[in-house]
Hints:
The complex is a heterodimer of chains A (557) and B (366).
Chain A (H helix, E strand, L loop, with lengths): L17 H9 L4 H29 L10 H35 L8 H24 L30 H29 L12 H32 L13 H35 L6 H14 L15 H29 L8 H24 L1 H7 L3 H31 L5 H27 L16 H31 L37 H6 L10
Chain B lengths: L7 H37 L17 H34 L18 H30 L8 E8 L2 E6 L4 E4 L1 E5 L9 E7 L4 E3 L8 E3 L5 E5 L5 E6 L12 E7 L1 H12 L9 H9 L2 H4 L23 E2 L4 E2 L2 H9 L1 H4 L12 H13 L2
Parallel strand pairs in B: 1-5, 4-10
Antiparallel strand pairs in B: 1-2, 2-3, 5-8, 6-7, 9-10, 11-12
Helix pairs in contact in B: 1-2, 2-3, 5-9, 7-9
Amino acid sequence: xxxxxxxxxxxxxxxxxxxxxxxxxxxxxDHKRLGILYVLYALLFLVIAGCEAMIIRIQLMxxxxxxVSPQVFNRMxxxxxxxxxxxxxxxxxxxxxxxxxxxxxxxxDMAFPRLNAFSFWLTALGGxxxxxxxxxxxxxxxxxxxxDIGWWAYAPLALxxxxxxxxxxxxxxxxxxxGFGTVGTAVNVIATILCMRCPGMHLGRMPLLVWLNLVMSGxxxxxxxxxxxxxxxxxxxxYLGGHFFDTQAGGSATLWMHFFWIFGHPEVYVLILxxxxxxxxxxxxxxxxxxxxxxxxxxxxxxxxxxxxxVWAHHMFTIxxxxxANSFFAITTMAVGVPTxxxxxxxIGTMWGGRIELKTPMLFAIGFLFQFLIAGLTxxxxxxxxxxxxxxxxxxxxxxxxxxxxxxxxxxxxxxFYYWYPKVTGRMMNETLGRWHFWLFVIGFHLCxxxxxxxxxxxxxxxxxxxxxxxxxxxxxxxxSLGAFVQAVAVLLFVANLVLSYFRGEKAGxxxxxxxxxxWSVSSPxxxxxxxxxxxxxxxxxxxDLKHAEDPDSRYE
Amino acid sequence: MGVMxxxxxxxxxxxxxxxxALVAIxxxxxxxxxxxxxxxxxxxxxxxGGGHVPNIFAPASGHAKAIFDLSLFVLAVTGAIxxxxxxxxxxxxxxFRRTEANAFREPPQVYGSTQxxxxxxxxxxxxxxxxFLASARVIHGIQDAPEPPGAVDVTVVGHQFxxxxxxxxxGIVTANELHIPVSDPLRPRPTFLKLLSADTDxxxxxxxxxxxxxxxxxxxxxxxxxxxxxxVFLGQCAQYCGTQHGKMLxxxxxxxxxGFEAWARGQQQPAMxxxxxxxxxxxFETTACINCHAVRGTAANGRFGPDLTHLMSRSTIxxxxxxxxxxxxxxxxxxxEAIKPGSLMPAMKxxxxxxxxxxxxxxxxx
Lengths: 557, 366
């Protein structure tokens, strides 16, 4: 690895005019720059969708509140959900895999750099199309609007009869376009992992992050297909007189649900698997031990990939499927808990007997472990179909999936930001601000989403723009909103930390965390071609071998 | 401030605090859960004024009770898992932190253990099996329950944004407030609902009487209720159905057997013909009202809106969005947007005199 000391000309030159620098960024095919573009793009949409969440929470602070009209409220939750899933969570995770996978497998770039750039710009266009609906949603005959059909866009609500105008068309087209981008990147990640690994890195020596990204990409290839097909069918229904989902002409509303959720549920695992990946890198490094039970972790990841393809209809327990179908989807859903539980135990096993350093990335990782545990357990409650007949479609479900997405995915992402920021920028993130960010976010998160379960138990359905006083929902909703504001402040601290540390952060050096995977062997930020000489590895932790030549991992694997 | 600023001394001071805070935050959901449990128990006990806060843990029917029992079992199992795993996480953090003594020594590198991993694979599999069997039993018990003779049949039709109730055996059509008889566990008289939709998806949910089932256009769903005490039970549409999903409220009135018979007899009567309100009836029959609303025994037989034959037997209007008073009736007819923005009822723009007459006529539809 010392061969990387070979000087590589620095592509960034500060003195160039900004137009040329911008041109470089727009036309780049470098996986690291595209990764950064993905992440910045996702952060922009995180702030936008976060503002939408604030509007929702202000409206729900008091019963019979009139902060926004029901029409605006419905648009807000539709845009919040769609944006967060498709234009925040997916791009930020693809950004990380873009940046990290080639570095971790010892490659100089992704397998198809131009496809990579094309995919990013498709995703970017998709996000713009969604928000263009604010201007063009009503076509040429009036003020704009945004889709208000919910992010599932259930038929027949999404059809012409109930959604005139063009706002839901923008929703459809933006998902088709960004879906093509997602598939392009998935193909790219798979090809990179299967074909571009450095000498010595057979499948059994890949870092877990790479394994999990392989599973995620494979899942994306499968699940984007039904979603795109359904979107095309919806367009056919809306414009070409099709009757797939048109219940007034014999179509089936439940057909759309199946199409949507056979995408929608695996999508949750598509989002959580890369987060498992972050945790599987952060926990070992900050516990100073290798991952406990690596082969079992790999097997559990692949098992999650397969089993999660057969659970989608647990989103549909209330639609009146027969008792056999309900039982089937109850057991498959509970079965996913087994490999997920194995992962949880292995992370704890890694910490057990280690030397845990509670730095910011590890704090977020521990937050993840704890909150994902609770999210998993409320998931088991929802998997028990009769319990779901009570809990489903209520605020309990809203609290549950925010526990997964915020408490799990977002916490893991924050950990990943603090962990890899030094590699990407060459500077450390500020630890004090990081701690403030962590604690504020934890407090806001628990105030918001712990209490949010309770109105669901008291009968509050989701997606209502206001509610009656005297149902026991008032105080809880007020506290939930306060928790949401605390989280917003914490996210602003995080963004401030990102910006300040870029200019003022301490120099990081190549390997600030004393870590073990290949990305830490190159300079921070890495040179344009990553590795001057392609490395050769002999174990899962090449840098451990390098640092402990007297007792290398390769002896035990 | 970065990694290099992480001095030994500072670490020794902030470490215990961090751990205490972690444990405190960890306890938060547990505290919230206990707080909720007290609320739920408190809620199940009637409060002053006769009402209580409806919730899924105060079941008032056999159907809801079966789900409640299952939910207690699931809560116990998941609670035990939570206690064990959370305990392990806290233990790991407490026991294996970096200290001054071990700061510069890597801990023993352990790669895994087949026995331990087998154990934590097999135990979850067994737990899943038990949970599945418990769920499957309740799924079957509720979904495949046969309809006993003497059960009441009701067809529920979901509309944007109100509920239509038709009793085919009794010849009754009403809206938004469902009357059903109490079902004595010894002599069960459940109500079987046939769930349809006229437009988009809706979902019928009364937390205390049972789980929810969707109303989906071009599809027939079924569910049943067997309330075991009388009273008014609140619920609302649970599946997003459009602009006014939020005010598609639902009331179920559980009557004593005699009360139900009396109510049904009243509903079977044709509309009252009070000559005092003839002017209002003329307004009603000569405006667009009759395109959407029905009043049996008059020219009005529309089906887009609620049947008004016995409007005054209901305590709310606009699907529970307002109490059924003269004043709210007036406001509702004059400007529905003021009560329920986005509802499909048009503003009638009547002259003041006509509006007064119309409200007076509505008052006679007892």
